[in-house]
Design brief:
By secondary structure, the chain is mostly beta strands. Helix content is 0%, strand content 35%. It is built from no helices and 5 strands.
Amino acid sequence: MKTAEWQCTVCAATNRLLVPDAATSARDRCVTCHTAHIIEMGTRPVRWSASPLSPLPSLRSGQAPIGRGEREPKVGDDAA
């Protein structure tokens, strides 16, 4: 077994995954934001490159990604 260390493309957290010695790619989720990634062996033996499994939401649409925006108003709250 070897360690694949990779950086999340969404929140930049460093993640580590144990992979078989012969592995050149794997799937993993970020321990911080839980975004699924495909990780592939990089030029350095421990540091792997990562890319998200699904496309990142566009921030230009004016909407924050799920879980990152404002809280939904509670029923009965007056809009200020």
